[in-house]
Amino acid sequence: MQLLHIDSAITGAQSVSRQLTAQAVKAWVASHPGTSVDYLDLAQDAPQHLTLDAMALRTGQTHDLTPAQQQETAVTERLLAQFLAADVVVIGAPFYNFSIPSQLKAWIDRIAQPGRTFRYGPNGPEGLAGGKTVIIASTRGGVYSTSEGGRAMEHQESYLQTVLGFLGVTDVRFVRAEGIAMGADAKTQALQNAQADITAATHTAANHAQLAQKA
Known about the structure:
Elements: E1 2-7, H1 16-31, E2 36-41, H2 67-85, E3 88-94, H3 102-111, E4 118-121, E5 124-127, E6 133-140, H4 148-153, H5 157-166, E7 171-178, H6 184-214
Parallel strand pairs: 1-2, 1-3, 3-6, 6-7
Antiparallel strand pairs: 4-5
Helix pairs in contact: 1-6
């Protein structure tokens, strides 16, 4: 079984999302000793944001590529192969300005490729990257999940759920720690809640992956 561990927080050792992804990966590997882990740190190794050169693969251009187009295509192919090979993906997604880090968005822009992870058919879009389990460590300084106004301002979990669903990934589990900037007590409670989420997410995800392998 292949697990892809992705971090995107820019805050290094101070990052709560990095702490949670490490714990989630450890919990997964503990219950699946044969799991192989591949690591991607988007704060250190993020792809360039989309440019015209990076769009060559997406538009189907394969001949007469410029050196810049060849370089960007190689980056996209590397990230695509890594994602498609994974049975389980653990993503650290901190809450930056009501959404996700731009580094994580740049990665999503590379793996969202027509004919590879989705396609359009007679009934509309169809995801091609199904069968994976994705566990997302969602961290937030404030609390956004308990009120209508908060949920309206949140474009982090909702965006990830939508884009992964578009790619065919329907088994998405959230490990959430919110309110971590609202004082020591609130942070302690948030981390306790996240620990419970990790137990639930890795257990449920493990069952799902085992069933998928038997199918």
